[in-house]
Amino acid sequence: MPQQGGDAVIEGKLKGLRARFLLVAVVVCLIAGAAAIWFVDPRAVARGGAWLSILYWFLMVLPAILVAAWLFDHYVLLRVERLADASTRIASGQHDQELAEGRDDEIGLIARAFNAMSRRVAEDMRNLERRVEARNEELQRAKEQLEESTRKLMESIHYARMIQSSILARRQDFYALVPGHSVLWLPRDIVGGDFYTLYHDDTGGFLLAVADCTGHGVPGAVMTMAAKAVLDRAVAVCGLEDPAAILSELHRDLRALLQTRYAKDGDNGLDMALVYVSADRAKLLFAGARLPLWVVHADGSVVIHKGDRQSIGYNRSRGDLHFTNHEVTRRAGERYLLFTDGILDQNGGEHGFALGQARLKTALVEGRSLPTSQIAPALATVLKKYQGGSPQRDDITLLAFGFE
Question: What is the per-residue DSSP string for 344-399?
Fold first, then answer.
């Protein structure tokens, strides 16, 4: 309401200004006419004809026009131009603008109102800048704290990766027992729920294990540490030569370990594939909990030995699970693959479908001439190309080995 009242006052003042301008113009015209009549003889003008009449009226009106134009320019246009120029500078960000208020008339009233507005805008902008500066300082402090927290978190995760790497099979053991091998280990989040390991005995036989635990990232990594400790105990109890018995023992021990008062908040366990290779390398004994063993023959054909359709350690599973051993007689030129389901489930391609068994078989057939040490790197290239810009969905582990 006060703003509307102020606008009405200014509008009334401007109307008065226009009325007075017209009054001044009329008075000037009358004065010019009177002067023309005083100094010019009308009879002489009448005897001069039309051209002298036109000159007479021109001389009478011209001074009025000039005076009116000067008055309008000096008292209105010039001051309004200054007002418009100051408004433009305010709009461009130059908020400290002051107009000469001059005469106590309508334009002077507008100039005073403009100056009050300019001072208020300048003060508001200074307050706003102070608040923005304070907020920016707060945001900068929060950003620095977040960066420091992120740095510490990433350092912890990378340290956790180093710890998790300690449960994986050592390279020197792999090269001593299986010179022809290659490994693909790709946790989705730096650390993850997949791991692979190797056990060997004094006779020269060895046991390979690939496991996919519940969870990703740090929770999955913690689960792998617990699973590896329980697996070590199961191997010590059962020995290396009976993978099915090891899986059964692992299930009972891990299920007992995870039976806590927090078990109702989640159900955890793992899938696993175990392969025992005899000292003479003549046969392999495989047992799996949902994970398979793939055998790639020299001619490129692939035989899949499926694991049992039951997982390890989950509360929903029975406590007395039994697993099956599958004996595989080794043939020349064969390669063997153990892997978690992360590689098959990875989506990509033109339609975003999972990689699947068919595409993996095709890649293995196309790479059958490669040495075993190059199988995992070659499959990593195939997987990356197929994945494209799609994010990695799951932890990926693949272990290829052979006896060239």
Answer: HH-EETTTTEE-HHHHHHHHHHHTTTS-GGGHHHHHHHHHHHHHTTSPP-S-EEEE
Facing residues of 329 across strands? Answer: 283
Rounded Cα distance, 355 and 362, in Å? 11
115: helix, strand or coil: helix
Residue 264 has what DSSP assignment? G
d(CA 91, CA 80): 16
Q: What are phi and psi of 274, to 5 degrees?
A: -125, 135
pLDDT digits (tens, 9 = 90+) for 306-349: 999 999 999 888 888 999 999 999 998 899 999 999 999 999 99
Closest CA to 224 of 177, 271, 184, 178: 271
* E-assigned strand segments in 255-355: 270-277, 283-289, 293-296, 302-305, 326-329, 335-339, 347-348, 353-354
pTM reported for the whole predicted model: 0.70
Question: Could you tell me if 167 and 185 are in contact, meaning their C-beta atoms sit under 8 angstroms apart?
Answer: no
182, 192, 242, 366 from 301: Cα distances, Å? 20, 32, 28, 11
Task: Summarize pLDDT for 227-275 with one digit per residue, the tens.
Answer: 999 999 999 999 999 999 999 999 999 998 887 655 556 789 999 999 9
Say whether 51 sits in a helix, a strand or coil.
helix
d(CA 175, CA 191): 24
Whole-number Å distance between alpha carbons of 272 and 231: 11
Task: Output the pLDDT for position 2.
Answer: 47
Distances (CA, A) of 136 to 121, 125, 126, 314: 22, 16, 15, 51
H/E stretch holding 193 reads none
Taking each helix axis from N to C end, the angle separating 78-91 and 106-165, rounded to the nearest 10 degrees, works out to 10
